[in-house]
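User: Second chain of the day. Same drill as before.
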Amino acid sequence: MEQSTNHFKYAALKPFANEIRLLILEPCSKTGSHTAVHCSLQNSCLDDPNGPSYEALSYVWGDASITEPILLQGQPFRVTRALWTALRYLRLEDRRRTIWVDAICINQEDVQEREEHVGRMSEVYKNALRGLLWM
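Assistant: Same format as last time:
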């Protein structure tokens, strides 16, 4: 992914709190399937039994040089075309969908954060309501 084109300011994760970010995917009617993908992020603690339910998305990143824009907290954010396609099809018509997706939920420009999350990925998937696979 062309990270240099994303200037999104991530909210910090609490140190030592086992926090992750979750993507809130806004609904879109099937007739509006060509509309922009709107989403936001929310921090959540993996250790909180009352935390939000979420799905974890596993997908093929595809060609990192081919990107499409989504709106993340109202700001343009570029993702691979494969992820953009997945998000467009995974939107629900009548409600938000909460998903963990590595390319957005992890600040890819923060090397330390990326390394910490790699060690946490099995826990992220284990705590998910279900895993989603997009190929």
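The CA atoms of residues 84 and 111 lie 23 Å apart.

User: Great, on to the next one.
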